[in-house]
Amino acid sequence: MASSLLFLGSLPAFSDMHADMQQLAEDKQCLSCHGRTDDTPRAPGFKSIAAKYSDGEMRGYLVDVVMSGGEDHWGSATMPEPGEKRAEVSEEEAQQLVDWILGMHKE
């Protein structure tokens, strides 16, 4: 029972964090191509990315991809270079976004 109460007490913090990450993804133009699921035809959904990289071993690679863009990350899709069709992403922002996305594997 006490653990349930602790969990319930953390829901607002989780909700705020999710909203913050959703806003960051929007600000950095991630949502122009990616969605939570594979509903967008241009790029894989965050949940698919989380499932593919669920072991976390590729976290550093994903951070680099978020920061630099490029191609051959997922089939033949090309992720725009920063400044091209998307905003610059700092390393700290990329780490936050990758952790948020990888956390979707547990949902």
Automatic annotation (TrEMBL):
Superkingdom is Bacteria
Q: Which SUPFAM superfamilies match?
A: Cytochrome c
Q: Name one GO molecular function term.
A: metal ion binding
- Report domain Cytochrome c positions: 15-105
Keyword terms of this UniProt record: Heme, Iron, Metal-binding
Q: Name one Pfam family in it.
A: Cytochrom_C
InterPro entries, A to Z: Cyt_c-like_dom, Cyt_c-like_dom_sf
Q: What is this protein called?
A: C-type cytochrome
Organism field: Halomonas nitroreducens
